[in-house]
Write a structure and sequence with these properties.
2 copies of one chain form a homodimer. In chain A, helix 8 packs across helix 14 and helix 11 runs antiparallel to helix 12. In chain A, the strands form 2 sheets. The first copy, chain A, has an 8-stranded parallel beta sheet with strand order 1-9-8-6-5-4-3-2. By secondary structure, chain A is an alpha/beta fold. Helix content of chain A is 44%, strand content 15%. The first copy, chain A, has 2 domains: 227 residues, Alpha-Beta Barrel (TIM Barrel); 75 residues, no CATH class. Chain A starts with a helix and ends with a helix. The interface between A and B is large, with 52 and 52 residues.
Chain lengths: 314, 314
């Protein structure tokens, strides 16, 4: 049996990425009810808001769901306290050092997955005791690795490096891409952008429409001087790019970034001045669909393409 | 039957990329003799040198082979004259406008393939009458697209856009990656870096060893102010990066680049001051092997992985 299905006790090895401002209880419960694994994105929630989302998610689904916690979160102790109190059983950690938190999460009988973009952190995560790894490539939306390794190059390297199951992320929004990820050795996939544009996503309608309208080359890895992040190109993005090309310092970029850019863009719908985190697959998204339809369509395409590939003759 | 095998009358739908300073007649004939399609890289050859390589390649193999011609080549008329005189039947064009040259090449009964990195040029190439398209992603070595679209995201978009066969390139140096490319809709693959490090590659031994020693994150897309090119990180690369981060102008970068950098690095083996064009898969290359062994190993892995994927159950 597929290791990711078994690990999380889910029907399809498809995980909805925990995303700031997009994945609250509505999206997570919709994905879990459809047979995937929904994740609440704690990165954009104050602790009390997170608790509320967990409670609502539990009312909305009886299926397994999890929480994604960026380890750079300011109130991180409080967040993990809430997860324990709310008896959360699945935690995805990202953007930080897995060795610091994994042991205590495992003591609480949680299943722990860590998101990485290079071999060094994959090994560190495995040694910390995580149950699986998300290998996220350059094409992914949001925060990203400095090595700029693409999913096609990263996934096989990580599968060779660790002995635990690998979930591929970045560039995966279709059954074909899911099949490609499985061909590379992944046992599951994490899908972000496609669900960011779903009916149940808490993203602002303006942002969802901008995803539908975006084309090839409309996202770019930005703010490399700070933490690299893939953004949709807009006025804010172009100001950052101009500043970086002109040799702006870290301090100047931090001032330009200011506070609350991601909320402004993705949650409040300011398409000009907000930070719009989205992956390269955005260019192929043409319709805002319910999460269950996205998941089912992906799975059906995966099965059909698997059949096609099996029957190829040379 | 597979469209790429049929188009070129070859045994395996694996094409060895035409690469400056690496792919002369020795490599091209070795790949063609092994059942793939070898390409002589005209981009680093004066016209008379190119003619000599074609003659030697024909003596070394009775199988089909081709020539890759970057359309920005200075003596382009003369190059195409030689290809016609030498009755070359397969031409891969890259780095330029396919509409200008494809019609006359087709009049000469040549099979023409154009290398693209975005939909606009894929359509332009199809409309120009090419027989197939190489869709090359961000992870590829050497010159690259400004959109930075990865192979995983590019290939399915191009397959949806054109009606002619698509060959995937960038990030493909194993049978697993080949299977992933086929899952995305490609009908063949073009392999560069793995063959750049082969026994028959005309690259300097220093460069081949540098490929073996390179690890994750050791290449980066550089010189974006001029024409983006993926390079191995070395002293020259770091000077370019520093200049670009400091806001260097196009003219300043051109001066820094100077002349003959690629030859100095890849052919003369100056690992510090030369330009070393190689793809992200370099980090996975551990041994200098004959081209035939590389090709056979890739094909065997492809077939084995296709079998594995076919038997996956959920």
């Amino acid at each position: 049996m597929n290791a990711i299905k078994k690990l999380f006790d889910i029907e399809f090895p498809i995980i909805q990425a925990g995303m700031v401002w997009c994945s609250g209880w509505r999206l997570a419960s919709a994905v879990s009810n459809a047979g995937g694994l929904g994740l609440i994105g704690a990165g954009s929630m104050y602790p009390d808001v997170l608790r509320e989302h967990i409670k609502k998610c539990r009312l909305a689904t009886s299926k397994p769901f999890g929480v994604n916690v960026p380890l750079l979160y300011p109130d991180i102790d409080q967040v993990f306290e809430i997860l324990a109190e709310e008896r959360i059983q699945i935690v995805f950690t990202s953007a930080g050092d897995p060795s610091k938190w994994t042991p205590s999460l495992k003591e609480n009988k949680m299943k722990v997955v860590h998101v990485i973009a290079n071999k060094k952190f994959a090994l560190k995560a495995e040694q910390s005791g995580v149950d699986a790894i998300v290998a996220e490539g350059f094409e992914a939306g949001g925060h990203n690795g400095r090595e700029e390794t693409t999913t096609l190059c990263l996934v096989p390297e990580i599968c060779e490096t660790v002995g635990i199951p690998v979930i591929a992320a970045g560039g995966i929004g279709s059954g074909k891409a899911m099949l490609a990820a499985m061909a590379l050795g992944a046992e599951g996939v994490q899908v972000g952008s496609a669900f960011a544009a779903s009916v149940e996503s808490s993203a602002h309608e303006n942002f969802k429409k901008a995803i539908l309208n975006s084309g090839e080359g409309d996202t770019k890895l930005s703010m490399k001087t700070l933490i690299p992040v893939r953004l949709m190109k807009n006025d804010f993005f172009h100001r950052v790019e101009k500043a970086e090309a002109g040799g702006a310092t870290r301090a100047e970029l931090l001032e330009l970034l200011g506070r609350g850019r991601a909320k402004k863009g993705m949650f409040e719908g300011d398409l000009s001045e907000g930070e719009l985190e989205i992956g390269q697959v955005a260019s192929g998204i043409r319709e805002i669909k319910p999460a269950a339809i996205i998941l089912q369509g992906m799975w059906q395409e995966f099965i059909a393409e698997k059949e096609r590939i099996s029957n190829l003759s040379f």
